Amino acid sequence: xDELRIGDITxxxxxxxxxxxxxxxxxxxxAIEASGAQVVTVxxxxxxxxxxxxxxxxxxxxxxxxxxxxxxxxFDVETTLRTARLAxxxxxxxxxxxxxxxxxxxxxxxxPATLEAAKILVKEGFVVLxxxxxxxxxxxxxxxxxxxxxxxxxxxxxxxxxIRNPYNLEIILTRAKVPVIVDAGVGTASDAAIAMEMGCHGxxxxxxxxxxxxxxxxxxxxxxxxxxGREAYRAGRIPRKLFATASSPLAGVIGSKQ
Amino acid sequence: xDELRIGDITxxxxxxxxxxxxxxxxxxxxAIEASGAQVVTVxxxxxxxxxxxxxxxxxxxxxxxxxxxxxxxxFDVETTLRTARLAxxxxxxxxxxxxxxxxxxxxxxxxPATLEAAKILVKEGFVVLxxxxxxxxxxxxxxxxxxxxxxxxxxxxxxxxxIRNPYNLEIILTRAKVPVIVDAGVGTASDAAIAMEMGCHGxxxxxxxxxxxxxxxxxxxxxxxxxxGREAYRAGRIPRKLFATASSPLAGVIGSKQ
Amino acid sequence: xDELRIGDITxxxxxxxxxxxxxxxxxxxxAIEASGAQVVTVxxxxxxxxxxxxxxxxxxxxxxxxxxxxxxxxFDVETTLRTARLAxxxxxxxxxxxxxxxxxxxxxxxxPATLEAAKILVKEGFVVLxxxxxxxxxxxxxxxxxxxxxxxxxxxxxxxxxIRNPYNLEIILTRAKVPVIVDAGVGTASDAAIAMEMGCHGxxxxxxxxxxxxxxxxxxxxxxxxxxGREAYRAGRIPRKLFATASSPLAGVIGSKQ
Amino acid sequence: xDELRIGDITxxxxxxxxxxxxxxxxxxxxAIEASGAQVVTVxxxxxxxxxxxxxxxxxxxxxxxxxxxxxxxxFDVETTLRTARLAxxxxxxxxxxxxxxxxxxxxxxxxPATLEAAKILVKEGFVVLxxxxxxxxxxxxxxxxxxxxxxxxxxxxxxxxxIRNPYNLEIILTRAKVPVIVDAGVGTASDAAIAMEMGCHGxxxxxxxxxxxxxxxxxxxxxxxxxxGREAYRAGRIPRKLFATASSPLAGVIGSKQ
Amino acid sequence: xxxxxxxxxxxxxxxATVRALLTSIGLGETLVAVxxxxxxxxxxxxxxxxxxxxxxxxxxxxxxxx
Amino acid sequence: xxxxxxxxxxxxxxxATVRALLTSIGLGETLVAVxxxxxxxxxxxxxxxxxxxxxxxxxxxxxxxx
Amino acid sequence: xxxxxxxxxxxxxxxATVRALLTSIGLGETLVAVxxxxxxxxxxxxxxxxxxxxxxxxxxxxxxxx
Amino acid sequence: xxxxxxxxxxxxxxxATVRALLTSIGLGETLVAVxxxxxxxxxxxxxxxxxxxxxxxxxxxxxxxx
Lengths: 258, 258, 258, 258, 66, 66, 66, 66
Fold this sequence. Notes:
The complex is a heterooctamer, with 4 copies of chain A (258 residues) and 4 copies of chain E (66 residues). Chain A has 258 residues and is α/β, with parallel strands linked by helices.
């Protein structure tokens, strides 16, 4: 059985999906289901006192999804820590997608702040899955701090650019001893397949599905793409060559002399 | 129902697989089945008088695969025509994968010879699916000659390089009125997904599956990749952007002033 | 001395420039001069009976440029041959840039027509430099027909996409015994440098210079880029590696223990 | 005049070269001269008590090169600061290429340590040019700390991979108010040209020149490539298009009807 | 007394507990979490934790995010 | 009489038909096709097409190919 | 007599040579080339080649091109 | 007295200055820089800065680097 272990969770699906930006709860439900994901990310936000609604959380719990709360929207260590603790209080589980953002324009992580927050949260018992740049040094530091996985971005959040630097990702994969999950930047199915073919252990995405014209169909595409990429990785692809190699035998063609 | 029509054949699967280079008949069978392909290519070769064996043909017919005989190994028009006619005589159906090769090192098509053979074979009633370069002019000529599809190469046969020139392929796709099937050069699952995401109508491959370390698993990967790419194409991917767009709401974070 | 021989011409500059699309004759002159090119392409067109003007031809002859007339705009063999013969009559020299175009949208060559015209023109004594696709089979046929060089396109004429398929170009370069000159598709300086670094013997361009905001400055850029690419090719670049190699010594840093 | 200002230095050449890894002093001299560089990087190392030799420093001072000492080889803030101060004491000028490395395998910077060292050194009056990842957040922080330029890596030091992530670099360029100099990763001339065409203000390299088979010829190639890329940037390249645009007029071809 | 709840002023009777606050807002206790002056109030303590005038409270739940 | 079958010489009795040839090789008639001197011999004519001395025959079937 | 020059009708006196035609158009003989009914008229023959009624002529020169 | 220079032990007469150390090594004062126990000794102070037993010195110059 080809399963992924993160902390003490064992997963058959390597696709992690977000729940933001869907048209409505019905579309959210249909897309998540079509994606086959077992782990689903959510954000922690103030209850809108005017129209409080816990429908999303209730649904995910009822359907037994593994909820992965994030600290999206946090731009400093303090807010990040408080948001993380609120998430744990709400859910009773220590799983956390750590994000400490650098600015709104790029939504790239703030590297020193992410490291600082990771250090504290690991000590507090969180199972930390940090969103990070594709910098191999930062990835290693996060691993050394005790993070349960590292989650380098493929490209800016919501950009749809795909894996912009496979070289850095390959260095991270070569060196990591924890799972490497590509987080952010996937645009279409082949992007997810490429990540898995490189040996990534999973892919996390939200906008690529929720922002597609048909999110439910795209969710299905992503499920198949992640599975295809993983199977291709395990199956061992053919080497790349400049010249051709025949697939049909060249001998035995009619008219040839023996 | 998202089906592909070529000539008067209607297909649910957009993956076309070859039957060359497998370890044995058992592996051939398992890989073809795992690929989900409905159309299967075969070569036409002299019966080896010492050890004649029609197992492959019998199996494909029994399992109701659509057999697509090729003219692989033919380097001139005359041999190509004779091979095509023998294939039709054997099978009783006019479907033909036309290949007239330029040389053994590249296995690229001989463009003028391919055009000449296509012209004659279409007139003789064949349903011609020609292997061609990614030259948009040649693709159009083949279409104008009455070919049922055009099958540009992604890269040299067996090279595993993937779609080396998406620009030419995109020009062909923009202009073609017959199905465009990428034939040759696919190396791994994402290559197939990319072809489908570009709007190709199908992908034909042999070495990428048969040459993988685990051909049956790779066949499954390819099946999913082609479906993923097709679904992503139909689902309408998000646009590419240089900067980020948040997937979690930026408002409602704790600690912020209203 | 690193010179290029084509037919019996010996060239110090490996940049070939067109003369179309400039604002006026003055800009044409300044750009050609800044490019350092020795070979300059021109088109053959009917004298406009209303405003005949031979200024371009006179200038090029006076400045001792090697004039390379083209058959641009010809879409059939007959018109191509007649245009070629008129060019030779006008100039008294057999140098010819052969173009037989497939259609106006792509301006890709018509491969069979190009081969047919090349065969006839070589027999008539022309020194034929054919514009062709990046198909290695066609390139070899043109060479076998006696062409003095082969000139594969990098991308569609005027598209500025650069070398869209370095793999095909590399196959052509590996096999060719005549000079390989990239013709069409260059967009900016690095595109020209890349072609030369791959081992191409020259680059021919027009729109990339004439269509730039400042054509004279771009001409200078192209001159330097072609020289830079050629020198880099001859100098022997470092190999590509995934990991780092220090350029400063790692020993002798202060504070370290011996 | 197209000049580059960094701190209060004004430069005509935008190529910065290192002095490591040459065969001998003679080759060092010839390569630096051929590169046309005005700024030359050096490392600070313990005098070897057995064979002390100040030839390099003497030569650079005599030839009036602007010496840019680096802190290469430093893996912690303290050693970096001490090395920087020693360099300033030796040279009497505050120019500094700041490197705080993460590990020997990647030679990627340690981002938090680089930020910390930059902060201190700027306060001490150094003109700090920091080597950094291509992370736009870190680049902005370095700028905000008062660095005189930012120097993102294109790829690992000595890897020769070229600009592996033009997207990140483009984001940095869009936002930076100080010069952006690509430092590390260039492999050949076109890599340098591409950096300059993107709008980078300079390129710093060592291994690409010193490690070439013919370093002096490669130095000349790099000089021309940087100039070519800069001129192309200033000249304003043509837009990229999928389809063709003729460079020769399509009207006036012989044989056509009016 | 006067509280600040999610950045907005809110009036509540003196001596109210966290649970009372949640009830007054119309929230149950599942799927929300409460922070009082920067410190989490565990769910089990909601009923026994009195609020004080000037307390700053954050009451959060899950929303769609990626 | 002497034939050339798939590029190799083959001796067969005079007057033999295509079907006889196939039988002598040990082949049935399904899943093979026969060309005689460059012209297809349709399956339905195998039994009635006599061979002649010096005939060049191609007998083909399907093999794995891509 | 009536000629077609570069796709347009042109009237010229009977018996005119190629050179006369070029002169009448205002062209010298350098840097142009002439084709008459699909065949090149070499420059050295311009003065001695008479035109005939109905001749189709192409008179070309170089223009900017790539 | 005993110094550590560039990580290696070095014996020098008591009361020697930085300049004396450099001279004893065979170095001039240009193009080198000296750090004593982690603090730069400016060139102008070389002649007047006495060394003490156990001092750790770093004496550096420029080498090729990138």
